[in-house]
TrEMBL record, chain A:
The protein's name: Heme exporter protein A
Biological source species: Paracoccus thiocyanatus
InterPro entries reported in the protein's UniProt record: AAA+_ATPase, ABC_transporter-like_ATP-bd, ABC_transporter-like_CS, ABC_transptr_haem_export_CcmA, P-loop_NTPase
Every ABC transporter domain range: 4-207
Any Gene Ontology biological process: cytochrome complex assembly
UniProt-recorded Gene Ontology molecular function terms: ATP binding; ATP hydrolysis activity; transmembrane transporter activity
Pfam families given in the database record: ABC_tran (PF00005)
Automatic annotation (TrEMBL), chain B:
Pfam families linked: CcmB
Keyword set includes Transcription regulation: no
UniProt keyword annotation of Cell division present: no
Lineage: Bacteria, Pseudomonadati, Pseudomonadota, Alphaproteobacteria, Rhodobacterales
Organism of this sequence: Paracoccus thiocyanatus
Described purpose of this protein according to its UniProt entry: Required for the export of heme to the periplasm for the biogenesis of c-type cytochromes.
TM ranges: 12-35, 47-64, 96-117, 123-150, 157-178, 190-213
Localization, UniProt: Cell inner membrane
Family from the record: Belongs to the CcmB/CycW/HelB family.
Keywords assigned: Cell inner membrane, Cell membrane, Cytochrome c-type biogenesis, Membrane, Transmembrane, Transmembrane helix, Transport
InterPro entries: Cyt_c_biogenesis_CcmB, Cyt_c_CcmB_bac
Superkingdom of the source species: Bacteria
Sample GO molecular function, one term: heme transmembrane transporter activity
Name of the protein in its database record: Heme exporter protein B
Protein backbone atom coordinates (compact mmCIF):
# COMPACT_ATOMS: atom_id res chain seq x y z
CA UNK A 1 0.00 0.00 0.00
CA UNK A 2 1.62 3.25 -1.07
CA UNK A 3 1.30 6.50 0.84
CA UNK A 4 1.11 8.54 -2.31
CA UNK A 5 0.45 7.39 -5.86
CA UNK A 6 0.41 9.68 -8.86
CA UNK A 7 -0.82 8.62 -12.28
CA UNK A 8 -0.58 10.57 -15.50
CA UNK A 9 -0.48 13.84 -13.58
CA UNK A 10 -0.36 17.17 -15.41
CA UNK A 11 0.09 20.45 -13.56
CA UNK A 12 -0.18 24.00 -14.79
CA UNK A 13 1.20 27.33 -13.67
CA UNK A 14 -0.54 30.51 -14.71
CA UNK A 15 -2.77 28.55 -17.09
CA UNK A 16 0.17 26.96 -18.95
CA UNK A 17 0.88 23.27 -18.54
CA UNK A 18 4.27 22.78 -16.92
CA UNK A 19 4.77 19.02 -16.78
CA UNK A 20 2.45 16.21 -17.83
CA UNK A 21 2.31 12.43 -17.74
CA UNK A 22 4.06 12.20 -14.36
CA UNK A 23 3.89 8.75 -12.75
CA UNK A 24 5.22 7.61 -9.40
CA UNK A 25 4.29 5.82 -6.20
CA UNK A 26 5.77 6.25 -2.75
CA UNK A 27 5.77 3.35 -0.29
CA UNK A 28 6.34 3.99 3.44
CA UNK A 29 10.02 4.75 3.93
CA UNK A 30 10.57 5.89 0.35
CA UNK A 31 11.85 9.24 -0.84
CA UNK A 32 11.59 10.79 -4.28
CA UNK A 33 13.95 13.51 -5.41
CA UNK A 34 12.65 15.87 -8.09
CA UNK A 35 15.26 17.19 -10.46
CA UNK A 36 14.99 19.50 -13.40
CA UNK A 37 16.00 22.91 -14.67
CA UNK A 38 14.58 26.11 -13.14
CA UNK A 39 11.01 26.74 -14.20
CA UNK A 40 10.26 23.17 -15.19
CA UNK A 41 7.48 23.01 -12.58
CA UNK A 42 8.94 21.40 -9.44
CA UNK A 43 7.25 23.91 -7.13
CA UNK A 44 4.00 23.69 -9.11
CA UNK A 45 4.06 19.90 -8.86
CA UNK A 46 4.64 20.04 -5.10
CA UNK A 47 1.89 22.62 -4.58
CA UNK A 48 -0.48 20.47 -6.60
CA UNK A 49 0.39 17.43 -4.49
CA UNK A 50 -0.21 19.50 -1.35
CA UNK A 51 -3.70 20.32 -2.62
CA UNK A 52 -3.02 24.05 -2.96
CA UNK A 53 -3.98 23.98 -6.61
CA UNK A 54 -5.96 21.55 -8.73
CA UNK A 55 -4.32 19.09 -11.10
CA UNK A 56 -5.03 19.72 -14.77
CA UNK A 57 -5.22 16.01 -15.51
CA UNK A 58 -4.40 12.72 -13.87
CA UNK A 59 -4.94 11.18 -10.46
CA UNK A 60 -3.34 11.80 -7.06
CA UNK A 61 -4.10 9.00 -4.63
CA UNK A 62 -3.37 9.73 -1.00
CA UNK A 63 -5.16 9.58 2.31
CA UNK A 64 -6.86 12.81 3.36
CA UNK A 65 -4.65 15.10 5.46
CA UNK A 66 -1.48 13.14 4.83
CA UNK A 67 0.70 15.88 3.32
CA UNK A 68 2.95 18.37 5.04
CA UNK A 69 4.18 21.09 2.71
CA UNK A 70 7.31 23.19 3.22
CA UNK A 71 7.69 25.82 0.53
CA UNK A 72 10.03 28.71 -0.05
CA UNK A 73 8.69 30.69 2.90
CA UNK A 74 8.64 29.36 6.42
CA UNK A 75 5.32 30.73 7.70
CA UNK A 76 6.92 32.40 10.71
CA UNK A 77 5.58 35.43 12.58
CA UNK A 78 8.39 37.88 13.37
CA UNK A 79 6.71 39.09 16.57
CA UNK A 80 6.43 35.60 18.08
CA UNK A 81 9.29 33.62 19.61
CA UNK A 82 10.62 30.50 17.93
CA UNK A 83 8.85 28.28 20.46
CA UNK A 84 5.57 30.21 20.09
CA UNK A 85 5.73 29.88 16.31
CA UNK A 86 6.33 26.16 16.52
CA UNK A 87 3.75 25.61 19.25
CA UNK A 88 1.13 27.38 17.13
CA UNK A 89 1.66 24.99 14.23
CA UNK A 90 1.75 22.02 16.61
CA UNK A 91 -1.66 23.05 17.99
CA UNK A 92 -3.12 23.61 14.53
CA UNK A 93 -1.94 20.15 13.46
CA UNK A 94 -3.18 18.32 16.54
CA UNK A 95 -1.21 19.38 19.59
CA UNK A 96 2.04 17.44 19.41
CA UNK A 97 5.00 18.14 21.65
CA UNK A 98 7.49 20.62 20.22
CA UNK A 99 10.52 19.55 22.27
CA UNK A 100 11.54 16.74 19.94
CA UNK A 101 11.28 19.05 16.94
CA UNK A 102 13.32 21.79 18.65
CA UNK A 103 15.98 19.25 19.55
CA UNK A 104 16.05 17.70 16.07
CA UNK A 105 16.93 21.00 14.40
CA UNK A 106 19.15 22.23 17.28
CA UNK A 107 16.82 25.11 18.17
CA UNK A 108 16.63 24.67 21.96
CA UNK A 109 18.90 27.63 22.68
CA UNK A 110 16.92 29.84 20.31
CA UNK A 111 13.46 28.84 21.58
CA UNK A 112 12.78 32.11 23.44
CA UNK A 113 14.20 34.38 20.77
CA UNK A 114 11.68 36.31 18.62
CA UNK A 115 11.63 35.10 15.04
CA UNK A 116 12.61 38.52 13.66
CA UNK A 117 15.94 38.15 15.48
CA UNK A 118 16.76 34.82 13.83
CA UNK A 119 19.14 34.55 10.88
CA UNK A 120 17.90 33.24 7.53
CA UNK A 121 19.36 29.80 8.22
CA UNK A 122 17.88 29.70 11.71
CA UNK A 123 14.46 30.64 10.32
CA UNK A 124 14.77 27.85 7.79
CA UNK A 125 15.63 25.38 10.55
CA UNK A 126 12.54 26.50 12.46
CA UNK A 127 10.43 26.14 9.31
CA UNK A 128 11.72 22.61 8.81
CA UNK A 129 11.18 21.69 12.47
CA UNK A 130 7.51 22.46 11.82
CA UNK A 131 7.35 19.36 9.61
CA UNK A 132 7.90 17.17 12.66
CA UNK A 133 5.05 18.66 14.67
CA UNK A 134 2.55 18.18 11.84
CA UNK A 135 2.69 14.41 12.31
CA UNK A 136 1.87 14.00 8.63
CA UNK A 137 3.38 10.98 6.84
CA UNK A 138 4.24 12.56 3.48
CA UNK A 139 6.60 15.53 3.46
CA UNK A 140 6.62 17.75 0.38
CA UNK A 141 9.85 19.73 0.46
CA UNK A 142 10.65 22.56 -1.91
CA UNK A 143 14.38 23.34 -1.83
CA UNK A 144 14.54 22.62 1.90
CA UNK A 145 18.25 23.31 2.29
CA UNK A 146 18.26 26.90 1.00
CA UNK A 147 20.38 29.11 3.33
CA UNK A 148 21.36 26.17 5.57
CA UNK A 149 25.04 25.71 6.48
CA UNK A 150 26.71 22.32 6.18
CA UNK A 151 26.02 21.27 9.78
CA UNK A 152 22.36 22.22 9.47
CA UNK A 153 22.05 20.28 6.21
CA UNK A 154 23.38 17.25 8.10
CA UNK A 155 20.85 17.86 10.91
CA UNK A 156 18.06 18.08 8.38
CA UNK A 157 19.26 14.94 6.58
CA UNK A 158 19.22 13.09 9.91
CA UNK A 159 15.70 14.33 10.67
CA UNK A 160 14.52 13.26 7.22
CA UNK A 161 16.20 9.87 7.64
CA UNK A 162 14.42 9.36 10.98
CA UNK A 163 11.12 10.32 9.36
CA UNK A 164 11.62 7.75 6.59
CA UNK A 165 12.64 5.09 9.12
CA UNK A 166 9.40 5.72 11.01
CA UNK A 167 7.50 4.79 7.84
CA UNK A 168 7.07 8.26 6.42
CA UNK A 169 7.74 9.35 2.87
CA UNK A 170 9.04 12.49 1.20
CA UNK A 171 9.03 14.23 -2.15
CA UNK A 172 11.98 16.61 -2.31
CA UNK A 173 12.89 19.17 -4.91
CA UNK A 174 16.59 19.68 -4.34
CA UNK A 175 19.94 19.74 -6.08
CA UNK A 176 21.90 18.91 -2.94
CA UNK A 177 22.87 15.35 -2.07
CA UNK A 178 21.11 14.62 1.23
CA UNK A 179 22.73 11.19 1.56
CA UNK A 180 19.50 9.39 0.71
CA UNK A 181 21.12 6.63 -1.31
CA UNK A 182 17.97 4.64 -1.85
CA UNK A 183 15.96 7.68 -2.96
CA UNK A 184 14.52 7.49 -6.42
CA UNK A 185 15.37 10.39 -8.68
CA UNK A 186 12.70 11.76 -10.98
CA UNK A 187 14.07 13.88 -13.79
CA UNK A 188 11.22 16.20 -14.78
CA UNK A 189 12.85 17.24 -18.05
CA UNK A 190 11.27 14.47 -20.17
CA UNK A 191 7.84 15.32 -18.76
CA UNK A 192 7.94 18.92 -19.91
CA UNK A 193 4.55 19.66 -21.40
CA UNK A 194 4.51 20.05 -25.14
CA UNK A 195 3.71 23.72 -25.42
CA UNK A 196 0.61 24.13 -27.50
CA UNK A 197 1.81 26.43 -30.28
CA UNK A 198 0.14 29.79 -29.91
CA UNK A 199 -2.76 30.30 -32.26
CA UNK A 200 -1.76 31.54 -35.66
CA UNK A 201 -2.26 35.26 -35.84
CA UNK A 202 -5.63 36.37 -37.25
CA UNK A 203 -5.33 37.70 -40.78
CA UNK A 204 -7.25 40.86 -40.08
CA UNK A 205 -9.79 42.66 -37.98
CA UNK A 206 -12.76 40.81 -39.43
CA UNK A 207 -11.31 37.40 -38.72
CA UNK A 208 -10.42 38.35 -35.19
CA UNK A 209 -13.61 40.06 -34.14
CA UNK A 210 -16.16 39.40 -36.88
CA UNK B 1 -9.23 27.08 16.16
CA UNK B 2 -8.32 28.36 19.61
CA UNK B 3 -4.68 28.34 18.66
CA UNK B 4 -5.36 30.53 15.62
CA UNK B 5 -7.52 32.96 17.61
CA UNK B 6 -4.94 33.28 20.36
CA UNK B 7 -2.11 33.73 17.88
CA UNK B 8 -3.97 36.48 16.00
CA UNK B 9 -4.86 38.30 19.22
CA UNK B 10 -1.27 38.02 20.41
CA UNK B 11 0.05 39.34 17.09
CA UNK B 12 -2.40 42.24 17.16
CA UNK B 13 -1.39 43.33 20.64
CA UNK B 14 2.38 42.98 20.19
CA UNK B 15 4.53 45.69 18.67
CA UNK B 16 3.56 46.56 15.13
CA UNK B 17 0.23 44.80 15.48
CA UNK B 18 -1.79 47.97 15.08
CA UNK B 19 -4.04 47.46 18.09
CA UNK B 20 -5.57 50.79 19.08
CA UNK B 21 -5.02 52.30 15.65
CA UNK B 22 -8.71 52.02 14.80
CA UNK B 23 -9.68 53.63 18.10
CA UNK B 24 -7.27 56.51 17.57
CA UNK B 25 -8.64 57.03 14.06
CA UNK B 26 -12.21 57.02 15.39
CA UNK B 27 -11.24 59.60 18.00
CA UNK B 28 -9.71 61.86 15.37
CA UNK B 29 -12.75 61.64 13.10
CA UNK B 30 -15.05 62.50 15.99
CA UNK B 31 -12.80 65.43 16.95
CA UNK B 32 -12.56 66.80 13.42
CA UNK B 33 -16.30 66.84 12.73
CA UNK B 34 -17.16 69.57 15.29
CA UNK B 35 -14.34 71.68 13.84
CA UNK B 36 -15.78 71.28 10.36
CA UNK B 37 -19.46 71.57 11.17
CA UNK B 38 -19.21 74.14 13.96
CA UNK B 39 -19.81 73.74 17.67
CA UNK B 40 -23.54 74.44 17.57
CA UNK B 41 -25.05 71.69 19.70
CA UNK B 42 -28.38 71.15 17.97
CA UNK B 43 -26.81 70.64 14.58
CA UNK B 44 -24.15 68.29 15.97
CA UNK B 45 -26.58 66.09 17.84
CA UNK B 46 -28.73 65.84 14.71
CA UNK B 47 -25.86 64.40 12.63
CA UNK B 48 -24.12 62.53 15.48
CA UNK B 49 -25.68 59.07 14.82
CA UNK B 50 -24.60 59.12 11.18
CA UNK B 51 -21.12 60.49 11.91
CA UNK B 52 -20.52 57.93 14.65
CA UNK B 53 -21.52 55.05 12.40
CA UNK B 54 -19.56 56.28 9.38
CA UNK B 55 -16.56 56.83 11.66
CA UNK B 56 -16.81 53.33 13.10
CA UNK B 57 -17.10 51.89 9.61
CA UNK B 58 -14.00 53.70 8.34
CA UNK B 59 -11.98 52.79 11.45
CA UNK B 60 -12.89 49.16 10.87
CA UNK B 61 -11.73 49.41 7.27
CA UNK B 62 -8.30 50.64 8.33
CA UNK B 63 -6.89 47.31 9.48
CA UNK B 64 -8.83 44.96 7.20
CA UNK B 65 -6.14 44.27 4.62
CA UNK B 66 -3.92 42.89 7.37
CA UNK B 67 -6.31 39.99 8.00
CA UNK B 68 -4.80 37.87 5.23
CA UNK B 69 -2.05 39.93 3.59
CA UNK B 70 0.58 39.26 6.25
CA UNK B 71 -0.19 35.54 6.37
CA UNK B 72 -0.01 35.44 2.60
CA UNK B 73 3.38 37.12 2.47
CA UNK B 74 5.09 34.91 5.05
CA UNK B 75 3.63 31.67 3.70
CA UNK B 76 1.39 30.96 6.71
CA UNK B 77 -1.67 31.00 4.50
CA UNK B 78 -0.34 28.11 2.37
CA UNK B 79 0.27 26.15 5.53
CA UNK B 80 -3.15 27.02 6.98
CA UNK B 81 -4.76 25.87 3.74
CA UNK B 82 -3.10 22.46 4.09
CA UNK B 83 -3.90 22.19 7.82
CA UNK B 84 -6.68 19.96 9.17
CA UNK B 85 -8.65 23.09 10.12
CA UNK B 86 -11.19 23.86 7.34
CA UNK B 87 -10.31 27.09 5.56
CA UNK B 88 -13.86 28.37 6.19
CA UNK B 89 -13.23 27.96 9.91
CA UNK B 90 -9.88 29.72 9.67
CA UNK B 91 -11.55 32.65 7.87
CA UNK B 92 -14.26 32.91 10.53
CA UNK B 93 -11.72 32.76 13.35
CA UNK B 94 -9.54 35.42 11.76
CA UNK B 95 -12.58 37.67 11.29
CA UNK B 96 -13.50 37.07 14.93
CA UNK B 97 -9.99 38.06 16.00
CA UNK B 98 -10.28 41.22 13.90
CA UNK B 99 -13.60 42.05 15.55
CA UNK B 100 -12.22 41.46 19.05
CA UNK B 101 -9.38 43.95 18.50
CA UNK B 102 -11.34 46.46 16.37
CA UNK B 103 -15.13 46.27 16.46
CA UNK B 104 -15.64 45.41 20.11
CA UNK B 105 -13.33 48.15 21.49
CA UNK B 106 -15.03 50.61 19.12
CA UNK B 107 -18.47 49.64 20.39
CA UNK B 108 -17.46 49.84 24.03
CA UNK B 109 -15.68 53.20 23.75
CA UNK B 110 -18.23 54.81 21.42
CA UNK B 111 -20.10 56.57 24.30
CA UNK B 112 -16.96 58.60 25.06
CA UNK B 113 -16.69 59.71 21.45
CA UNK B 114 -20.44 60.37 21.32
CA UNK B 115 -19.89 62.95 24.04
CA UNK B 116 -17.76 64.94 21.62
CA UNK B 117 -20.64 65.00 19.14
CA UNK B 118 -23.38 65.97 21.57
CA UNK B 119 -25.35 62.75 21.07
CA UNK B 120 -28.64 63.06 23.00
CA UNK B 121 -28.64 61.09 26.26
CA UNK B 122 -31.30 58.42 25.53
CA UNK B 123 -29.35 57.26 22.43
CA UNK B 124 -26.26 56.03 24.31
CA UNK B 125 -27.37 52.46 25.09
CA UNK B 126 -28.68 52.08 21.53
CA UNK B 127 -25.39 53.32 20.11
CA UNK B 128 -23.50 50.61 21.97
CA UNK B 129 -26.12 47.97 21.15
CA UNK B 130 -26.16 48.81 17.45
CA UNK B 131 -22.35 48.78 17.23
CA UNK B 132 -22.10 45.47 19.09
CA UNK B 133 -24.70 43.96 16.75
CA UNK B 134 -23.39 45.57 13.56
CA UNK B 135 -19.59 45.53 13.72
CA UNK B 136 -19.25 41.70 13.43
CA UNK B 137 -20.71 42.06 9.93
CA UNK B 138 -18.10 44.73 9.14
CA UNK B 139 -15.25 42.40 10.13
CA UNK B 140 -16.73 39.43 8.30
CA UNK B 141 -17.44 41.32 5.06
CA UNK B 142 -13.99 42.84 5.38
CA UNK B 143 -12.46 39.38 5.64
CA UNK B 144 -14.22 38.55 2.39
CA UNK B 145 -12.82 41.67 0.71
CA UNK B 146 -9.36 40.91 2.08
CA UNK B 147 -9.59 37.34 0.78
CA UNK B 148 -10.55 38.52 -2.70
CA UNK B 149 -7.69 41.02 -2.92
CA UNK B 150 -4.98 39.03 -1.10
CA UNK B 151 -1.76 38.89 -3.07
CA UNK B 152 -2.55 41.98 -5.15
CA UNK B 153 -0.15 44.88 -4.97
CA UNK B 154 -1.90 47.89 -3.43
CA UNK B 155 -4.83 45.58 -2.86
CA UNK B 156 -5.94 47.61 0.17
CA UNK B 157 -7.43 50.37 -1.94
CA UNK B 158 -9.27 47.96 -4.21
CA UNK B 159 -10.52 46.17 -1.14
CA UNK B 160 -12.02 49.39 0.23
CA UNK B 161 -13.86 49.93 -3.04
CA UNK B 162 -15.20 46.38 -2.93
CA UNK B 163 -16.14 46.34 0.72
CA UNK B 164 -17.65 49.78 1.36
CA UNK B 165 -20.76 49.20 -0.81
CA UNK B 166 -21.36 45.96 1.08
CA UNK B 167 -21.38 47.96 4.31
CA UNK B 168 -24.42 50.00 3.22
CA UNK B 169 -27.19 47.87 4.82
CA UNK B 170 -25.34 47.73 8.14
CA UNK B 171 -24.77 51.49 8.06
CA UNK B 172 -28.43 52.24 7.27
CA UNK B 173 -29.92 50.10 10.02
CA UNK B 174 -27.21 50.90 12.56
CA UNK B 175 -27.46 54.66 12.16
CA UNK B 176 -31.25 54.49 12.04
CA UNK B 177 -31.34 52.63 15.38
CA UNK B 178 -29.23 55.35 17.02
CA UNK B 179 -31.29 58.12 15.41
CA UNK B 180 -34.53 56.64 16.71
CA UNK B 181 -32.94 56.20 20.12
CA UNK B 182 -31.95 59.86 20.08
CA UNK B 183 -35.45 60.94 19.08
CA UNK B 184 -37.03 58.79 21.77
CA UNK B 185 -38.71 56.52 19.21
CA UNK B 186 -38.63 52.73 19.26
CA UNK B 187 -35.26 51.52 17.89
CA UNK B 188 -36.01 47.80 18.06
CA UNK B 189 -37.05 47.35 14.42
CA UNK B 190 -33.79 48.63 12.86
CA UNK B 191 -31.84 46.68 15.49
CA UNK B 192 -33.60 43.47 14.47
CA UNK B 193 -32.79 44.16 10.82
CA UNK B 194 -29.20 44.96 11.79
CA UNK B 195 -28.92 41.63 13.61
CA UNK B 196 -30.41 39.86 10.59
CA UNK B 197 -27.83 41.43 8.27
CA UNK B 198 -25.03 40.40 10.65
CA UNK B 199 -26.29 36.84 11.04
CA UNK B 200 -26.70 36.24 7.33
CA UNK B 201 -23.23 37.70 6.74
CA UNK B 202 -21.75 35.38 9.37
CA UNK B 203 -23.52 32.42 7.79
CA UNK B 204 -22.57 33.04 4.16
CA UNK B 205 -19.33 35.01 3.98
CA UNK B 206 -16.87 32.43 5.39
CA UNK B 207 -17.65 30.16 2.45
CA UNK B 208 -17.22 32.94 -0.11
CA UNK B 209 -14.00 34.12 1.51
CA UNK B 210 -12.52 30.63 1.70
CA UNK B 211 -13.38 30.04 -1.95
CA UNK B 212 -11.68 33.32 -2.90
CA UNK B 213 -8.60 32.39 -0.85
CA UNK B 214 -8.33 29.00 -2.56
CA UNK B 215 -8.37 30.69 -5.96
CA UNK B 216 -5.77 33.24 -4.86
CA UNK B 217 -3.42 30.59 -3.48
CA UNK B 218 -3.16 28.78 -6.80
Amino acid sequence: MSLLAVRDLAVARGGLRAVEGVHFALAPGAALVLRGPNGIGKTTLLRTLAGLQPAVAGVIEAAADSMAYAGHSDGLKPALSAAENLRFWAEIFGGRDIEAALAAMNLRDLAARPAHALSAGQKRRLGLARLMVTGRPVWLLDEPTVSLDRDSVALFAAMLRAHLDRGGAAVIATHIDLGLHEAEILELGPFRAGRVPSQSRPAGFNEAFG
Amino acid sequence: MWALLIRDLRLATRSGGGFGLALAFFLIVCTLVPFGVGPEGGQLSRIAPGILWVGALLSCLLSLDRIFALDFEDGSLDLLATAPLPLEGAVAVKALAHWLVTGLPLALSAPVFALLLHLPGPAYPWLVASLVLGTPALSMLGAFGAAVTVGLRRGGLLMSLLVLPLYVPTLIFGAEAVRRGAAGADPVTPLVFLAAVTLSTLALTPFAAAAALRVNLR
